[in-house]
Automatic annotation (TrEMBL):
Gene3D superfamilies: Enolase-like C-terminal domain, Enolase-like, N-terminal domain. PANTHER family: D-GALACTONATE DEHYDRATASE-RELATED. This is N-acylamino acid racemase. CDD domains: MR_like. Residues 153-251 form the Mandelate racemase/muconate lactonizing enzyme C-terminal domain. SMART domains: MR_MLE (SM00922). InterPro entries: DgoD-like, Enolase-like_C_sf, Enolase-like_N, Enolase_C-like, Mandelate_racemase_C, Mandelate_racemase_N_dom.
Amino acid sequence: MTITDLEAIPIEVRFSPRSEDGGLGSYARQDSSRSVQPRVLLRLETDDGVTGWGEMLPTMGSVDVVRSVFEKLIAPYVVGREVWEIEAFLQAIDRNSFTLAYYNANVQTFVAGVEMAMWDAWGKHLGEPVHRLLGGKYIDEVPFAFALGVVDIEESRRIARQAAENGFEVLKTKAGRDWRFDVERIRAMHDAVDGELEFRLDPNQGYSFEDAVRVGARLEDAEIYLQYLEQPVRVDSFGTLKRLRQRLTTPIAVNEDLYYPHNMLHLAREDAVDVGVVELLSMGGILRLKRQVGVASALGISLSHHSGRDLGIKTAAILQTVATTPAIALPPDTVYYAWADAVIESPFEFDDGRLSVPDDPGLGVTVDTEAIERHRVEEYRSEPTADPE
C-alpha cells in the first residue's frame, strides 16, 4: 500500500459570534474580519485508492511558504513509502535533522500532519479505528476543558455560566496583559458559577516571576485554587519554574516548553513542573507525543492536551490519542464548539462537555470535500486572526 501523492490544502474557516449560544468565537475577537482562522489540510493518496487526511497550522505564514516546505522538505520522505511505515518516516526525518533543525517545532507540525494522514489511511485500509492500532481505547468518551480568550469581566461571567450549563467542569482562559485584571476575571467567573468550575490560567509566557507569584498568591488567598497556571514565564526558565513551585500551592504547567524534544526530562530533573500540556502537532505526531507522555508519567507529571483551535480532523486524532493514553488524565482544551462550519460530514457534538471516541476506520471521520473547496484559499489574510493560542 504505497503512498503515491500528497497535497497541502490551505483553508480558512470562521468562528461563530459570541452572541450565539454555544458558538462564542472563543479566542477570536468580535471583529468579524478577525474571526477567520487559517488551517492546512493534508491529503494523502495511496496506490489502492485509500485517502488519508491530516490537519495542521500554517506555522510558516504564507500559502506559498507552506506549500514549498511541504513539497520540498517533507514530501520526499513520504511519497513512495508504504503507508504503514510511520516509524521509518519519522526516523528518516531525524536522520536529516541537520537540515530540518533550523525549522524546529514549525517543521514538526508538518511531520505530525503527515503522520496523522498515514494513521488515517492505514486504519481505513485495515478497516479498524486508529485507537485499535494504538493498543485499544480505555474510555469511550473524553471530557474537555472549555477554552476562552481575554474578554471583559461581564462577558467572562456570562461565558463561565454558559460553560457550566453545557456540562463543562473546567474552563481555561488566556491572560497576561495585566495580572490584576487576570485575578479579577478568575474571581468573577468563580463567583458567577458558585465555584462549580475549575480554572486554568494561561498567560503564554507573559508574566514575570514576581507577577506569577502575585497571581497565584492572590487566588490562593481568595480560596480559588487553579487546576494549573500554564507556562507563566518564558520557555527554558527551569529555575524560575522551580522557584514558583516552591512559592505557590498552585500547580505549575508548561506547554511551549514541550515543543523541544528533551525539555520534559529536563523539567522533571529540575523538579520544575507539575503538569505538562502536550500538543501532538508541535511534538511531531502521535508516536512522538506518546514517547514524551511515557517520560512524564514515569516521573509523576500530570498531563493534559493543548488546543490549537482544532477542526474535526485533528480533534478526531486527539480523541484517538487520549482514549489510548491513560496518563493524559486531565481534560484536553478545546474550542471545537465555536466553529461556524465544519470540514467533516458529521461534526462532533458535545454532551456534558464530552466527545465520543469514533469507532469508524482510520481517524473515524469522513471529510466533507465540498466544504473544503468552499474554504480553500490561495493566500491567508494578512491581519492577525485571533488572540495567541
